[in-house]
Design a protein that fits this description.
With 120 residues, this protein is mainly β. It is built from one helix and eight strands.
Amino acid sequence: MEEAILSDHRRHLRYAIKGEVFIGARPLYHTAGSLKDISEGGLGFEYVAGSGDEQSRTIEVDIVCGKHFRLSRFPCKVAYDIGADRPSSGSIGTRRCGLEFGRLSHQQADLLSLILNSCA
């Protein structure tokens, strides 16, 4: 695995993502973004903030890595959702969202291990 992103207050090491991996937040996919880091306990992603983007505190996400790799309906809790940059007047900004995984099925846990080994 590549270089770990260390943090004192996290239980799991987060790993930077190699390549492009995308996130879609259910149920309506009104939030979609780019995966930045992932761990056994959660993930961080960035998305373009639009007017009226209001995220629920609990969501499900799909993770898409390449053409043939998709993890569906991962239960998550929003840990934070903050501005990643300061947009100029009238422009749309980028936001950074941290998600904590909820209870994963055995199949989801196996797929998470696969993405940790292949994309991180």
